[in-house]
Amino acid sequence: MLTINTTKLVTIERHISEEQSIYPSATGEFTAMLRDLTLALKIIARDVRRAGLNDILGMTTNTNVHGETVKRLDLISNDIIFRAMDHGGHLCVMASEENEELIAIPDPYTKGKYILVFDPLDGSSNIDVNVTIGTIFAIYQRLDPTLKTDGTMQDVLQPGYKQIAAGYTCYGSSTTLVYTSGHGVDVFTFDPSIGEFFLTFEKVKIPYKGKYYSVNEGNFHKMSRSIKAYIEYLKLPSSDGVRPYSSRYVGSAVADFHRTLRYGGIFMYPSSFDAPNGKLRLLYEANPFSFIMEQAGGMAIDEQGARILDKIPTSIHQRTSFFVGSPGDIEELVSFKELYS
Ligand code: AHM
Ligand code: MG
Asked: Residue 155 pLDDT more than 60?
């Protein structure tokens, strides 16, 4: 697999402003907003790299040598995004996986036409053990972009197909940023010595089928009959060598999704009898991943077979079962569901 498919030296900011320049009505506001967000992502990347050295970790129960509770990196990341985004005049409201309620733009600042929803640090169980974690975000336009008032719950509860941009970072062996604004998916890699994200892979396309399946198989006995049958099928050797698939599961959705996007295959977080909507959040995880996956030629559905991007959210922390990956693999999964329904 190629990790670089371009020789152009292009930063994320340059890339976004070039993409925006195709719209004659673009004011530069969107580009400026993304610049603020990129700054937050760079600061989080730096703090992740220093986790463990700086009284920053994942669990609130950890104490430092002075007996003080260390700060939670996911809450710090949440705060960094808020402080980078509250005053730019571009947003009218935000929603974060870490905040129970909507996050209002404080009063002295102008309320703009965009909405930011985010998971500041996904993969919380992996923070303390040096395994890849990441930040996920999606951007919407408010229902009436001419308003200069606070954004409302209706503005935030838009279906995923209304996203105007989405992305995620992976803080792994390097820091990568995967981004789409509906013109394909591009990958940027952070050069910490220069402090810039550089374009390293343009217009990613997922293979039609992959060799990997990714699911928390510890939940196997809680899954529905059709999902269990599908997983058993993936493990069964076939004479053409296509199966068995290999199993990969990090437990950070950003990492499992990123591998699926680049190598193909399927990532699943199904429902179970004790969690009928699975675990992942529609707004902060499933929707941005689904927008990116469809832009890369893949598919994303829930356990009922509904397209994730068509789901109308009813609350900001709503969960959904989630199946995402290569079109050939998702189609095969659907055929199992039909067989067992
Ligand atoms: P988080 O947002 O609190 O980190 O939880 C979401 C994470 C995902 O990154 C990952 O796919 C999933 O939880 C793992 O859950 P499990 O431990 O049940 O497999
Ligand atoms: Mg998460």
From this structure: yes
Which ligand 1 atom minimizes the distance to the CA of 255?
Answer: 9
Contacts of 209 by beta carbon, 8 Å cutoff, 6+ apart: 242, 264, 265, 326, 328, 329
Q: Where are the beta strands (DSSP E) in the chain?
A: 56-57, 71-72, 91-96, 103-104, 114-122, 133-141, 165-171, 175-180, 185-191, 196-201, 212-214, 246-247, 266-269, 299-301, 322-325
**How remote is the CA of residue 250 from the centroid of ligand 1, in Å?**
9
Query: Is 70 exceeded by the pLDDT of residue 243?
Result: yes
Residue nearest to atom 11 of ligand 1 (CA): 253
Structural domains for the chain: 2-204 (3.30.540.10), 212-339 (3.40.190.80)
**Residue 67, phi-psi category: left (phi > 0), alpha (psi -120 to 50), beta (remainder):** left
Question: What are the pLDDT digits (tens) for 210-240?
Answer: 999 999 999 999 999 999 999 999 999 999 9
Mean pLDDT computed over every residue of the chain: 93
